[in-house]
């Protein structure tokens, strides 16, 4: 009698309710666990796919960087060649101008010699030594620009063959 | 008859049948605990799936953008590369002419030095000879200058330029 009183829930109806409650909760728990497991599986698949996608993005980014580098190298090589060509054109123009000035000076000296002023003519020719020396320097510069331009062109050809 | 069977004490029927009545309660408690566990797993799974799905979606969007950016960069590099062969050929022609011009300039300057020396020496024949060499060098250089100017223009016009979309 005492034990029955200690349990305190003696009604069979409550027992049935507790039993069905347990069964229902258990079944629902199973459904939820299966649902959760499936979602975790799906998350795992999605994470793997995201990892693969990120790896592909990384490869594509590297390819983009490589393409930009090729473009940058081509532009740099071409700019360098264009600069040397421009420098050559400028130096060549300066040589032409200096030659013309020298020709004028020599013609003037020749006129002096033709007029019998040999001393003045000699002095006039000598006076052009500085201009001639400057012309020599310009020629050296022109050769250097030509060599540099040839080197830049070779660089460009190398890039053309294998960027 | 002292060995006669002693009747067992009478136990109330109710007490015997009610003793295992904790089982339904335990079952219900276990079920509820399992339910809580199930809810936890379901919530975690759902959150994880949702987060992974978002992450995948983001990565796919980035992939699309990166594919477009890579394709553009490669197309631009290819476009520049395609303009290179004629540009390099123009450069070769230009430098060939430039080399002839430099050689002509060297002859002209050498003749100018000779002019000066002959002039200082008062040697008219040498002077005239040097003038002739200088004139010959100038005559040879003039068409080269015209050619080189055209080649410089062609070279500058053919500078590899990416399409407008590559800026």
Q: Based on CA inertia axes, which overall geometry of chain A fits?
A: rod-shaped
Strand content of chain A: under 5%
Order of helices and strands of chain B: HHH
Largest sheet of chain B: none
Short description:
Chain A is mainly α and 163 residues long.
Describe the structure in your own words.
The complex is a heterodimer of chains A (163) and B (167). With 163 residues, chain A is mostly helical. Chain A has one domain. Helix content of chain A is 93%, strand content 0%. Mean pLDDT of chain A is 90; it is low at 1-8. With 167 residues, chain B is mostly helical. Chain B has a domain at 44-159. Chain B has 3 helices and no strands.
Task: Name some characteristics of this structure.
heterodimer; A: 163 residues; mainly alpha; rod-shaped; B: 167 residues; 3 helices; 0% strand
What is the fold's blueprint, element by element?
The complex is a heterodimer of chains A (163) and B (167).
Chain A lengths: L1 H6 L4 H103 L3 H9 L2 H33 L2
Chain B lengths: L12 H6 L3 H100 L2 H34 L10
């Amino acid at each position: 009698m005492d034990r029955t009183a200690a349990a305190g829930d003696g009604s069979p109806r409550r027992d049935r309710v507790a039993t069905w409650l347990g069964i229902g909760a258990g079944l629902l728990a199973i459904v939820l666990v299966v649902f959760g497991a499936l979602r975790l599986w799906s998350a795992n698949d999605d994470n793997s796919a995201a990892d693969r996608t990120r790896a592909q993005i990384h490869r594509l980014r590297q390819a983009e960087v490589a393409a930009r580098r090729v473009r940058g190298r081509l532009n740099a090589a071409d700019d360098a060649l264009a600069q040397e060509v421009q420098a050559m054109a400028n130096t060549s123009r300066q040589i032409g101008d200096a030659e013309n000035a020298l020709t004028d000076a020599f013609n003037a000296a020749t006129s002096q010699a033709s007029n019998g002023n040999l001393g003045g003519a000699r002095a006039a020719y000598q006076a052009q030594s500085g201009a001639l020396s400057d012309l020599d320097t310009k020629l050296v510069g022109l050769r250097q620009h030509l060599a540099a331009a040839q080197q830049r062109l070779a660089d460009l050809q190398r890039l053309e063959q294998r960027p | 008859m002292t060995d006669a069977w002693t009747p067992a004490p009478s136990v109330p029927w109710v007490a015997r049948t009610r003793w295992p009545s904790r089982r339904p309660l335990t079952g219900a408690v276990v079920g509820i605990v399992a339910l809580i566990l199930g809810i936890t797993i379901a919530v975690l799974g759902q959150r994880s799936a949702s987060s992974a799905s978002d992450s995948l979606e983001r990565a796919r969007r980035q992939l699309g953008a990166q594919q477009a950016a890579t394709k553009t960069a490669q197309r631009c590099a290819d476009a520049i590369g395609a303009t290179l062969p004629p540009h390099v050929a123009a450069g070769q022609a230009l430098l060939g002419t430039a080399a002839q011009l430099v050689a002509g300039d060297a002859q002209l300057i050498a003749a100018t030095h000779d002019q000066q020396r002959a002039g200082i020496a008062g040697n008219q024949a040498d002077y005239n000879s040097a003038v002739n060499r200088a004139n010959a060098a100038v005559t040879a250089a003039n068409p080269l200058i015209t050619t080189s100017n055209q080649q410089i223009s062609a070279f500058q016009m053919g500078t590899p330029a990416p399409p407008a979309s590559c800026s």
